[in-house]
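Box 4.2: Ligand-aware structure prediction
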Amino acid sequence: MEWHNDGFLITDERDRVDLDFVVRMLGSSYWASGRSREIVARSVANSLCFSLFGPGRQVGFARVVTDQATFAWICDVIIDPDYRHQGLGSWLLECLTEHPLLKGMQQLLRTRDAHSFYATFGFVACDCLCRKVPGLPASRRYDE
Ligand SMILES: CC(C)(COP(=O)(O)OP(=O)(O)OC[C@H]1O[C@@H](n2cnc3c(N)ncnc32)[C@H](O)[C@@H]1OP(=O)(O)O)[C@@H](O)C(=O)NCCC(=O)NCCS
């Protein structure tokens, strides 16, 4: 699927993901800075990916892990710092949450500080358990 708005494009075509961009953006994030290129590539290959393109290049990314039946885990939501605070992150979340494969399904995510951003889309705090894996290398960690 593709969505267009004012010169920007969002696509769910995995082949269009600019892996260099995603690796660079996640490398600067608080939750995935230790993730290797190989691990990022594997996560992309096994997720429903949403890529946001501005003039000439990718400027945003998000991915979803889902069984396409009962739940969808939203992760690695990130907008290039040069393009933040223009409504693009909200548009990306809007397209993602309303995607035909995900709409009406239990959608989950973790965030350290963007609760108000996600609250706009109906996300509220909920309990869940997390199994701690001793010695998990930084390249495999998921600490959103
Ligand atoms: C969070 C993020 C995806 C939002 O993208 P964006 O394009 O700036 O989003 P929008 O312009 O649609 O909306 C921004 C609004 O979200 C709200 N917001 C809440 N928490 C926020 C946070 N932690 N970071 C940025 N915005 C936040 C603010 O109200 C902000 O309004 P403002 O622009 O007036 O300050 C982007 O800031 C980003 O990539 N941040 C770094 C990565 C990150 O924290 N991702 C989420 C991890 S769960």
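In the box above, the bound molecule is coenzyme A. Helices lie at 19-27, 37-45, 88-97, 115-119.
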